[in-house]
Amino acid sequence: MKLQDILAPIADDMRRVDATIRARLRSEVAMINEIGAHIISAGGKRLRPALVLLSARALGCTTQEPILHAATIEFIHTATLLHDDVVDESNLRRGLKTANAIWGNAGAVLSGDFVYSRSFQMMVDSGRMEVMRVMADTTNAIAEGEVLQLLNCGDADVDEARYLRVIELKTARLFEGGCRLGAIAAEQPRAYQDRMGRYGHHLGIAFQLIDDLLDYLGDPAVSGKNLGTDLAEGKPTLPLIRAMQVGTPEQAALIRAAITKGDIERLEDVLAVVESTGAIPYTRALAERHSREAIQALSEIPESPYKNALVDLAHFSIARAS
C-alpha cells in the first residue's frame, strides 16, 4: 500500500498542516525564507505530523487543534535535519542539495535554530502546559541521542544496546511525542496518552531499523541517498554490529576497519559480509517485532478508519523501499 493511500483519511488535515507550515516559516530575514522554501519543496513523508493527526482523530478529536501540533512536530523534525546535515557533512537529502551545501554550515545551523524556536512559539500558542512538557522532554531526548550518535561514530565497539539507545532517543521519542500530542488534543486521560505513546515509540524504532537497513539494500534512485552513506560517516548500525558479532574474525576485522576509518572503498566486500552473516534478516526481524508491538498498543483504541491507518503505517514502516 502506498503512503498516500494510508493517509487518505487525513488528507484535508494534511493540507491544512502544509498551509500552517508555510505561514509559520515566514520571516523578515530573506535567507530564512529561502531555506524555508527549499525545505518545503524537498517534500518528505510528513510521517510525524500524520501521527499527530491520526492519533487525535482515532481518539475522537474533531477540532482543529491537532493541526497546530502537527506543524510543530514537523518544525522540530526539520530543525534536526538541518543540524544533522551539518554534523554529517551531508550534501544530499532526498536527492536534493542540502541547505548547508547551498547556504553554508552557518546559514543552515542558524536557520535550524530559527525553526526550533518557532516551534516553541507554536507550543505556547496551544495554551497547553502538557504540550510544552511533552515536547520539552522530547527535544531534550533528541539532543541526547544526537550527542550519543556522535560519540558512537567511528567506534566499532558499539553494541546492539548502545545502538538501540540512540535510535530510541533520536527517532522513536519524536514519533512517541507526536502520538502523545494527538491524545492530548483529544482530551484523553494519561492511560490513553501512554498507549498512543507506546505505539509511536515502537513504530519509530521499526522505522529507523529499516532506514538503517536500506543503507545496505536500498535503491539510491528511490531512497535519495547512496548505499553506504552511514558507513562513510562511521556509523555502527545494527546490520554492521550483527555482522561483526556472528562473522568470522576476518569479516569482523573488515567491518571494524571500515567503521573506524569511515571507509567505503571496500563497500562491496562489506555488503557481502552483511548479507552472508544473516545480518539483514536479523535486523528486519527486530523491526517486524517492534511493528507488531506498535499494533498491539492500539488494541484498546476504538475501530475507525484512523486506527486502520495507524495499523497500516506500522506495516508500511517495515515494507517501504525509501
Automatic annotation (TrEMBL):
One of its GO terms (molecular function) is all-trans-octaprenyl-diphosphate synthase activity. The keyword Magnesium applies. GO terms for biological process: isoprenoid biosynthetic process. Gene3D superfamilies: Farnesyl Diphosphate Synthase. Keywords: Magnesium, Metal-binding, Transferase. It is an enzyme of class 2 (transferase). Its EC number is 2.5.1.90. Signal peptide: none annotated. Its cofactor is Mg(2+). SUPFAM superfamilies: Terpenoid synthases. InterPro entries: Isoprenoid_synthase_dom_sf, Polyprenyl_synt, Polyprenyl_synt_CS. The keyword Translocase does not apply. CDD domains: Trans_IPPS_HT. It catalyses: 5 isopentenyl diphosphate + (2E,6E)-farnesyl diphosphate = all-trans-octaprenyl diphosphate + 5 diphosphate. Pfam families: polyprenyl_synt. Supplies octaprenyl diphosphate, the precursor for the side chain of the isoprenoid quinones ubiquinone and menaquinone. Belongs to the FPP/GGPP synthase family. This is Octaprenyl diphosphate synthase. It comes from Fontimonas thermophila. The lineage of its organism: Bacteria, Pseudomonadati, Pseudomonadota, Gammaproteobacteria, Nevskiales.
